[in-house]
Amino acid sequence: MRKLCLGRSLLLGVSLLPLSAFAAETGFDVGDEATPKKDSSATTSSSEVTSGVRFQGSSSALFGRYNGSPENGFYPFLDVNIGQKHPWDSGNTSYFEVTGTNLTSNSDRVFPNASIALKFGKQGAWGARVFYDNISYAQSLTFHTVYSDSGSLLLGTPGGISLTGITLVNPPSAIATTVSANVANILTKRSIDSQRHTFGASFLSRITADWTFSSNFTHEHKVGNKENSLLQGSGTGVNSATGNILYFPEPIDYDTDRLSTSIGYSTRKMQFQLAYSLSRFINNQLAIVARDPFSSTTIKSVPLSATYSLPPSSFAHQIKAQFGYNFTPAVRLNTTLAYGIQLQDTSFVPQSTNPSIAVPAGPGSSFDGRVETYFASTTLTARPTGAVDLRFSYLIDERHNESPRKTFDALLDDTTGFTAIKSNVPYSFQNQKANAELGLHAVSSTKLTLGYLYTQQNRTFSAVDVNRENTFYGRFNTQVMNELTMTLGVSHGYRTAAHYSGSAPWLAMGYFNATWYDANGLVHYSEGVRRRDEVKGELAWTPTGDLAMALSGKYYRDRYLRSIYGITRTQAVSINPDISYSPAKGFDTHLFYSYERLFYQQLDVVSIGGGGGSQFFWKMNTPNTVHTAGASVDWQVDSGVKLGASYTFQHGTTAFNQSGFATGSLGTSPWNYNVVRLPSNTSNLNSLNLHAEYQLTDDTTFQVGYIYERFHSKDYLNAQVPTSPLHANEVLGADGDPSYNVHVVTAAFHFKF
């Protein structure tokens, strides 16, 4: 394989972010200080507090996935905004602001989705911000497992469930039924969730009229767990005393630190920024040792177990320079250059916890991973005449993996059965993009844009060394009349694949057995020859000041021209009409509808074991459709009363249209091949939101709200149970049906002072 290299000469870069963006984190104003006119001791304040209570009628992990309240119950909440600043023309531009949002609690956590920040400084001179953010995520309330977060069994005796004599038959044997019942007795049901606690500070200062300095630091601690699974044993068969599949809660205990600092120079003609960033990821738990609840004859002197490595700790450094220059008012150049290095040298976890096994030396004590990244881009824009504008850009992005190649051993059944599982692959890539665009302004209200985009992707240890794609596109924007505008865009792209070899990734890892090769004609869709055609457009009409209508849509089709197996065809379409209407002052309505359809076709062939070279061919056409419709009304009844309502309905369907046939024997039961048509997955969401505000005084408002949400899902995977006599040595997570009916009522007072 060819070693990718940037040539060690970084090219001119993409676009320079405006230096004013430095101030986003601090509320810093980069403009000149105002000339003193008023008393500098005068201040103005703007403070608001919203305090109330929220009641949720039922529990749902899906409903509360991101809002911090998956469980039912009462939730008090508080939002605070307290600020003070001096008048703009007072000569004193100092300010401060304290904000706190979603200050609530539930039965498990305080402030699960809260954000607290303090901003202060002097506009035009310096600014600082200190903040705390809390982000929660709920994955499941009904995860079934035999494990604790440490990997130990919650109940039962390790290795206490015998698999002797178990085989795969249908209907299940008496032994399989007994095993399944014994596993069910040691299962527990628990929640799977995580919490992020982020603390940070940022500072920005104007050194001189042209120079600025900024710095930002954040520390994040993430704790909780996530669903995962492992395979105990050698994996040579299901229901055969080996290959025990077990779901477990993978523990999360991460710390992430990010530090960035930059210095910038800005004049009307030239802008420059030099920045350095450091990222450190620390996993406070290297691995878990998961005990196997099953027993087999291969167990040595201790219960069977599996050591599962968790994400390793790592560091990353990056230096970035950005430059912008205005040659003339009509010609501008933007560049970006960046170099980064990523390091990972976490110690390997022990290959076995069995003291009776002589563990070989293996690949060493740690990985010593190292990846260098290079990035360069440049953009030149020009408008030589009022009717013509030009844009040229080039980008190169490289990941050069300098990690060592090592061969790792697998320990089967926690016995002396070691076997080499080949080498890791230091995958590298280089992406390049070149773009040229011509804009023609026929009249003041019409523009035609023609463009060409060239992309090239170089990879190592992949099925394709080089992909190249040529894309031609055009856009037409026009204002037909004062109240009607139209946009239409088309593109055509063709991607080539040089020297496709599906066996190359397997050979790179050291798998020389022909059974590991891709089937002849199977092409990875992300690397194969592809033709893409795309059309998109938008029509906006505003016949009056009270009525606005819009219609947008998009269609694309991908054809993988040399793919016999794998994904051979994909197409998608979306249509989005939208209407806003205000029949009276203070009365606003909105209607929208969205239709989306994504279709892909997949074909494959499977060699039937024991069938004398027989093969099974299958095809699956999968259409995914989503209909979304909604309406909302906002009514300012009078100066003291405001009402609002919104309703959204969404229906989604995923169909599985399978077919297949075999050449020769279908195989021996229960391993014979045939097509079992899967039922379609459907889901329906109904969401109703009612809210009202009543102004008690000039500074006090009473707010009430009601939310009803009903989600119904029909998915064949939801019907799976954690244990089954048919596959008695599988323990699945089996989260169950995510459908829910949730009522939420809120009441709050809003104060201004």
Task: Describe what you observe in this structure.
The protein has two helices and 34 strands. With 753 residues, it is mainly beta. It has a 26-stranded antiparallel barrel.
Features:
753 residues, 2 helices, two-stranded parallel ribbon, mainly beta, disordered N terminus, globular, 34 strands, 26-stranded antiparallel β-barrel
Mean pLDDT equals: 87
Query: Into which percentage range does the β-strand content fall?
Result: over 45%
Describe the largest sheet.
26 strands, antiparallel, barrel
Unreliable sequence segments: 1-37
Number of strands: 34
| Rg (CA only) | 31 Å
Distance between the termini: 69 Å
Structural class: mainly beta
Helix content: under 10%
Gross morphology: globular
Number of H- or I-type helical stretches: 2
Give the topology, please.
Layout: E1 44-56, E2 73-85, E3 94-104, E4 115-122, E5 126-145, E6 161-162, H1 174-185, E7 188-206, E8 211-232, E9 244-266, E10 270-283, E11 287-291, E12 294-295, E13 305-309, E14 314-328, E15 331-344, E16 369-385, E17 388-401, E18 407-412, E19 417-423, E20 429-443, E21 446-459, E22 466-481, E23 484-498, H2 504-509, E24 530-544, E25 547-559, E26 566-584, E27 587-607, E28 615-638, E29 641-654, E30 657-663, E31 681-697, E32 700-714, E33 730-731, E34 740-752
Parallel strand pairs: 6-12, 9-33
Antiparallel strand pairs: 1-2, 1-34, 2-3, 3-4, 4-5, 5-7, 7-8, 8-9, 9-10, 10-14, 11-13, 14-15, 15-16, 16-17, 17-20, 18-19, 20-21, 21-22, 22-23, 23-24, 24-25, 25-26, 26-27, 27-28, 28-29, 28-30, 29-31, 31-32, 32-34
